[in-house]
Write a structure and sequence with these properties.
By secondary structure, the protein is mainly alpha-helical. The chain has one domain. Helices cover 95% and strands 0% of the residues. It contains 1 helix and no strands. The longest helix has 37 residues.
């Protein structure tokens, strides 16, 4: 049953990394939009 535990742990880590990547992507898009508006 150790394999199942590691599988769940891996899914949680991948899910967390995906959320962080999405939040960073949104932040970059907002920054680019702000710079293009001021320019």
């Amino acid at each position: 049953m150790v394999e199942g535990f590691f599988l769940v742990l891996l899914m949680v880590v991948i899910g967390g990394a995906a959320e962080v990547a999405v939040s960073i992507d949104v932040r970059i898009e907002e920054k680019m939009r702000l710079t293009s508006e001021t320019a």
